[in-house]
Amino acid sequence: MNQHKNNSIANDKPHGLIPFYIPHAGCPQQCVFCNQHRIAAGGARASEVDVKATIDEYIDNERHEKYWEVAFYGGSFSALPEDLQRSLLEPAYEALQNGEIDAIRCSTRPDALGETEIALLKAYGVNTVEIGVQSMDDTILTRAKRGHSSAEVVGAVQRLQEHGFTVGIQLLPGLPGENWHTLVNTAVAVAELMPDFVRIYPVLVIEDTELADDVRAGRYTPLTVAEAVTYSAFLKEYFEEHHITVIRTGLQSTPELDAGIGLVGGPYEPAMGELVTNYQWLQRFLKVLRDHRAAGLPMHSVTVLYPRQLTSKVRGEKQRNMKYLAECYTDCTWQWYEQGSKKAKAMFGIKTNKFSDNVLLFIDNFRYNVI
């Protein structure tokens, strides 16, 4: 039986993250895609700072305004020498015991999560562990020089769950050897593990990596933005259908990446998360429309009714979904209304906000809930 989880995902307060970065620390080898020194965005270098002083600096007078969480990112925390882990965890655990912070989390490798490593994390109050899984295809893991297998991922997740940890999984769609077959298999395998959350980071090619050399030599072709959106939308939709939260899609933007510094190739897009959500809604609309026509039903006018909070997601960035659908179905008239608006009320003759959070598609006299 898992112990109670103090899970920040479900917490009502705004999340206050206190990040410490340990680029490559603990990693037994260099993966073909990795250059943590370039992609670590902000935060203190964990080996160079007073953890307690940094916690105090972040919290200041906002202790009760946010859900404060210390996070050790950028390397394989549980693979660090034990004395170094203790030296970093002790001040964070003291702050946790004193009620100065609410939680501690770390990221690490699946092959560094045996019973001994887990016991140490548990002893110092760590309650969330994110695992760099990247893929559940062993051929892809070997080509990426990850140094672990998919079986080790399964064992690590199960042990963490048995000890009551909140478990996150990080995936990198688009690694060398990726295709729809491997992607679907990875989605199925991850969903079977039932992690608490997933992050999806389409592969970027960063300077000073083996992958950058492969691009220049013509041995690897990175994903386009469109391909990354398609892959990520599939993963996100699949996980959400299995009640697994996807907390981020796409690498967090940095001034360096925005300027293209150190970026050799790949689908870098600061709005990746929004594009993926737009694509999810587009696919939902297309399914309803195709099923409607396949049933031999008439389709002359289409009206989309949506709640205000979903406006940008449903209509698409720069109205891309509206434009795409109008171009695909030129024999239909299209109307888009926000629930509760005067135009919607005039159209339907009722207070449309009664539909709550539903997105509705009216095709002639047929009404569909789009979920």
UniProtKB/TrEMBL annotation:
Residues 10-248 form the Radical SAM core domain. Keywords: 4Fe-4S, Iron, Iron-sulfur, Metal-binding, Oxidoreductase, S-adenosyl-L-methionine. One of its GO terms (cellular component) is cytoplasm. Its cofactor is [4Fe-4S] cluster. GO terms for molecular function: 4 iron, 4 sulfur cluster binding; metal ion binding; oxidoreductase activity. The keyword Cell division does not apply. It comes from the Bacteria. GO terms for biological process: tRNA wobble base 5-methoxycarbonylmethyl-2-thiouridinylation. This is Oxygen-independent coproporphyrinogen-III oxidase 1. The lineage of its organism: Bacteria, Bacillati, Bacillota, Negativicutes, Veillonellales.
